[in-house]
Structure formats: C-alpha cells, structure tokens
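Lab channel / #folding
Pinned by the channel admin:
"Please post every new chain as: sequence first, then the structure tokens as a reply. Keep commentary short and put observations after the output so the thread stays searchable."

First post following the new format, from NK:
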Amino acid sequence: MMTASPAATRRLHGRHAVVTGGSRGIGAAIVHALLAEGAHVTIIGRHREALDQAVETAGAPSSLFAAVADVSDSAALDRALADARVRFGTITIMINNAGQAYSAPIRRIADSDWRRMISVNLDGTFYGCRAVAQEMVAAGWGRIVNVASAAGLVGYKYVSAYSAAKHGVIGLTRSLALELAASGVTVNAVCPGYTDTDMAHDAIDNIVSKTGRTPEEARAELVALNPQRRMVEPEEVANAVMWLVLPGSEAITGQSIAIAGGEVMR
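Reply from TO:
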C-alpha cells in the first residue's frame, strides 16, 4: 500500500497564504509556522532588503515569494497580490499583520500622525480583506486573520490613535465574518498584548526618551500590564493564528482572541 509523502501529510499542503508585514516579528513567526505546515507563502512589506533577508532566513525558496507594497496604498497592494497569484495561485489564507504604533498625549497628535495610524492599521487591513474575500468565496474555503491588538479591546493611555485603529480592525473583523459566514470563509482577529518585537522595543525607547526612565524601568512598565509579568513571544501569536487557519477551526469566526497573559479585557 502506498503511503502519503511527508509533504502531503502537512495540513496546509498546497494552500497559498499571504502575510503582510511578514519580514520580522509576529509576521515572520507566522510565516515560519505556515511553511512548516506545507503552505506556499507570499510575504508583503515595504522594504525589499528586509523581504530578501526574510526569504533567505526562512530557507524555503520554492515555497516563499516576496512582494513589495505599502498596505496603506490599495493599488500597490492589489498589484503585489496579483503577482503573488501568478506565482502560487488562488489566495485562500490572508494574514493582515502589517501595522505601526505611535505614542503621544492626544494634544500632541498631529493630523498626520492620526492619519498614518488609521491608514496603516485600519485601511491596510480593510484593503487586504477586500482584495481576497471574493476569490475565497469562489473557492468555497478561506481563512482571514487580522492581527489587531489588546489595545483594540481596551484603551491604553497615550496610544489613542493606534487604539482607535485597532478597535476599527475588530469591528471590521466581526462585520465581515457575518457577511461571509455561509461561504466557507472564516474571519477572526488575534489581539496580542505587548509582544517582544521591534515595535515593543520602540515603545520602550519612546518611554525612555520622554520620561527619563531607564530601559529596564520602561520595560517593566509595559510588562506590568500582563498578569504573567512578561512579554508575549511572537511564536505564541503565531500558534494562535495557526489554530484559526488549520482544519478543525471551521466554526470559529468573528472572534477577537486576546493573547495577553490573562489581562482583563473590560
């Protein structure tokens, strides 16, 4: 009796997944997890050098494609996704992960700062969802996961623009999940607390520069929000994402899952 090849036994064998902001941090962890389950993966980011480094690090050139685009530019994102389809075919997994954070009291948030937070974090997620929803419906199967934030479930002080954008991502997720509920496509969000990535390190640097605290004190301030008294690891977020895209999660849609060490989500 013939046995299945190792590749065929991987649970996402032959699926085409797209990860925006996939060159580092949470995005890179998700990319590695998808590749391990046999998916073909397209990563999208703004900087070619960072994308090329991510492809080299992943060590899976035949299963990985990188395209340059700013997700806040819908035309550029559409072009990148068109190139991705030429390479790997229909997109059935979309991870809208690209994002930026900005911290300041509201009186110091310029119009441009507000617009940037909305454009990257909310508009970019909307553009990604819109670009793939119809082909997933046509395929009768699809998984959209939006990487939001614990700040999208509760308000954090001094990040009102970022928090507003992430609240918007959660609203978008819930509405789209209902719209596509009968189609075989699920739409969910994961909401990490402070995660040990460059974004968190930037937040620490910002606290240090504005308050005069030491890096250790600044890190402790962020860690204190997590009842486990630690930062979340990128791989922990990737594990949650994989649970939502792997077989067996068909009934899970419209959810916003906190990955924040037990932080109370009021």
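NK: The domain at 14-193+232-254 is CATH 3.40.50.720 (Rossmann fold).
TO: also worth noting, The first strand starts at residue 16 and ends at 20.
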